[in-house]
Amino acid sequence: MARTLTTVGFDADDTLWHNERFFRITQQKFAELLGDHTPVDLDPERLGDRLLAAEQRNLGRYGYGVKGFTLSMIETAIEVTDARVPASVIHELIEAGQMMLAFPIELLPHAQEAVTALAGDYRVVLVTKGDLLDQERKLAQSGLGDLFDAVEIVSEKTPEIYREIFSNQPGGVAGTMMVGNSVRSDVVPMIAAGGWGTYVPHNLTWEYEKEATPEGDPHFHQIKDLSELAGLLAKLG
Amino acid sequence: MARTLTTVGFDADDTLWHNERFFRITQQKFAELLGDHTPVDLDPERLGDRLLAAEQRNLGRYGYGVKGFTLSMIETAIEVTDARVPASVIHELIEAGQMMLAFPIELLPHAQEAVTALAGDYRVVLVTKGDLLDQERKLAQSGLGDLFDAVEIVSEKTPEIYREIFSNQPGGVAGTMMVGNSVRSDVVPMIAAGGWGTYVPHNLTWEYEKEATPEGDPHFHQIKDLSELAGLLAKLG
Q1: Among the four A50, A78, A160, A228, which has the fewest Cβ within 10 Å?
Q2: Domain count of chain A?
Q3: Is residue A156 exposed (0-12), middle (13-18) or buried (19+ Cβ within 10 Å)?
Q4: Strands A220-222 and A150-154: what pairing?
Q5: How confident is the model over B106-126, as a mean pLDDT?
Q6: Of B77, B91, B132, which has the smallest distance from its Cβ to A155's Cβ?
Q7: Which domain holds residue A203?
Q8: In B, which residues are within 8 Å of A154 by CB distance?
Q9: Could you report the per-residue pLDDT of B202-236, keeping only the tens digit for each?
Q10: Which chain B residues touch A139 with a CB distance below 8 Å?
Q11: Membrane-crossing residues (chains A, B) (predicted)?
């Protein structure tokens, strides 16, 4: 009997390794740096809202990743201070962004075992969005690079993009399970493309990526962490 | 007899469409904006040198493209003014960067005909570096997207990357001619990879991309413009 699933797609950031926490650390630093220069009613939470609004406004031109995030921080710093922020603070924002591009990769629990266990029996494909060079750096540092049959760094995770990527894999998109921590990017568009989606929650997820899980959809699954992935796939056949 | 060449790789920026001129316009604006805030001995040329130095220093972290260029402009503005540049000027630099991400694509002479003429007889592959989303936008706007059998947006153009891209094409890298305006990125590493390189000079080329042509190398060719490409390829067989 033909197998149901022959290919597994993995998201990278906060699915295989920590990422969002470096954004949170930087955002905290952003709030500290701007504290002395913003109106008193702009508490860190409201400041975070303004930054998120800038990020979303800029997604269509910058795409995902640290460079766009840094530019959105600078833009927000200028905006919320009515252009009174000193250049020295902007310099520190640039340096904070550069630190994000150099943070050491730390794998999430079970990531290495999960990918290694599947690499023999399935085609395993990494699908990630963000800055090209930075995603390549992180993959290289993760030590997982050689396990993947293909690596796709994409500007957006849409049903069309998933179809394009997985139509070339054996089993096509219908025979592929995408695994990731973003319901919005890894699960919903993959199921819309005709594939399968497994949600692996991460305790830190970017506001923008949050979305209700498609409960009841037979192509949707959820696991506690990556230690449960091989068992789930074996069950599905 | 087997054909010598079966695949043609095209660079994009300043090979198929104008690009560098938008960097030049922005750099001029950068000099104008900073004019009132920099020491008198820092003329536009020296300011350009400082910006180029920042771009090169940041290549390893930002990679190529407009987002990194914008961040390097801001960094340079802070540096050359000893952090005295007003936030309003930095805001204008951010806007100048955003304008670069929205400039309308204008094809170079003969680009459309050259790609169209080859698309039937050769595999045609676009190979470009820069920001993922921006390169995708430019390709979509160019109207040439459907002519290419494959599009590769890469973080760097090295012999290894060329080998990886073209080993999957019929004829492999040895049967592929890469065509572009950068001797450093499009010609030299492609020939080092075992392929062929054709240099199509553009009147504006980024300082960083300049390099001596490999005169006398039988895999090196130079043409005046893309109208000569089909003839050159026919001659080589």
Answers
A1: A160
A2: 2
A3: middle
A4: unpaired
A5: 96
A6: B132
A7: 7-18+105-236
A8: 132
A9: 988 888 888 889 999 999 999 999 999 999 999 99
A10: none
A11: none
